[in-house]
Amino acid sequence: MEKFQAAMVLGGVGDALGYRKGHWESCLSGKKIQEELASMGGLGGLRLDPENWPLSDGTLMHMTTAGALVTDFWCLEDLYRELVRLYVEAMSSLQGRPPDPSSVESCAFLKPDNFLLAWHTPFNEKGSGFGAATKAMCIGMRYWQPEKLDNLVEVSIETGRMTHHHPIGFLGSLCTALFASYAVQGKPLVQWGRDLMKVIPKAEDYCRKTIRHMAEGRPGRRGHDAPMIAYDALLASGSDWTELCKRAMFHGGESCATGSIAGCLYGLLYGLKQVPTGLYQNLEKRDRLEELGRELHRASTPEK
Question: Which cofactors must be present for this protein to function (predicted)?
């Protein structure tokens, strides 16, 4: 359970570091970010707090997804209806954080009051961003067992295309969910990419059966490269938290997205032991993140 809690918290830490109240998220120079970090005393000298290091909309959407996954839903369709309701609510409660444009546009088409078509949104060629990927790690935590792979594939795709109705977008959701499940399973990092490729045909089959529409910038901007940057950072850094941050949180791309994914996966793999307490002690919404970690662990544990 501790690693589930660490995953939710460190996903928030990675997001807050990469975001830095919008300053580093919009900075195109990784060198400049590294220089500013050094002038602040380095990573170990940082003390994250809600005022100066807020979470971005990405973590709030991840928390929203997790909140639906721990409800007592009867079937997956009921889960999707709850996700629709919560996503629509989330768009009006982001507390001043700039929302992902694709999420805003797609949530306008979600229909909480339509029992049959609540989560059916029109195809959006611009819905290829990273927002689907950054809210899906909790899906892999909820359905981490190999025998739950079909559920993971379906839920990650449906959840992803509620807000990012383009394959590049919603397949990012599948990727981060899979990586999270591999981390919980204890699968060696070097196998993740290969095993991901084995699941792609299953995802394609599901899409062909259910999809409403088929269609054939910056580092981390798209749904397919944000998980890959996070994965590369994990491969290169191992259990070294500082090195992971250099590679996933402090670069001239969408560092809040890659940082959120990398931080969450790191938490599942290694926990909090090597992370300076100042980075998470006063993290915004830490208590709720830990609570969601506990609830995800409970929901994912088979009843005996």
Answer: Mg(2+)
Angle between helices 255-270 and 167-185 (to 10 degrees): 20
**Cα 252–45–269 angle (5° rounding)?**
70
3-state secondary structure of 129: strand
Distant-in-sequence, close-in-space partners of 196: CB < 8 Å, separation ≥ 6: 175, 178, 179
Question: Is the distance from CB of 2 to CB of 271 less than 8 angstroms?
Answer: yes
Is the dihedral angle over the CA atoms 170, 171, 174, 180 positive or is it negative? negative
Query: What DSSP designation does 70 have?
Result: T
Q: Where do we find the tokens 């409970």?
A: 298
Task: Give the percent of the chain with pLDDT over 70.
Answer: 84
Q: How confident is the model at residue 129 (pLDDT cuts 50, 70, 90)?
A: low
What number is the average pLDDT over the span 169-188? 95
- Predicted TM-score of the model (pTM): 0.89
Q: What are phi and psi of 126, to 5 degrees?
A: -90, 0
Domain 2-300 homologous superfamily, CATH: ADP-ribosylation/Crystallin J1 (1.10.4080.10)
**Is 239 marked within a binding site?**
no
Burial of residue 211 (CB within 10 Å: 0-12, 13-18, 19+) is middle
The domain segmentation of the chain, as residue ranges, is: 2-300
- Phi, psi of 129, rounded to the nearest 5 degrees: -75, -175
Using CB atoms within 10 Å of the CB of residue 125, give its burial: 0 to 12 exposed, 13 to 18 middle, 19+ buried: exposed
pLDDT (0 to 100) of residue 124? 56
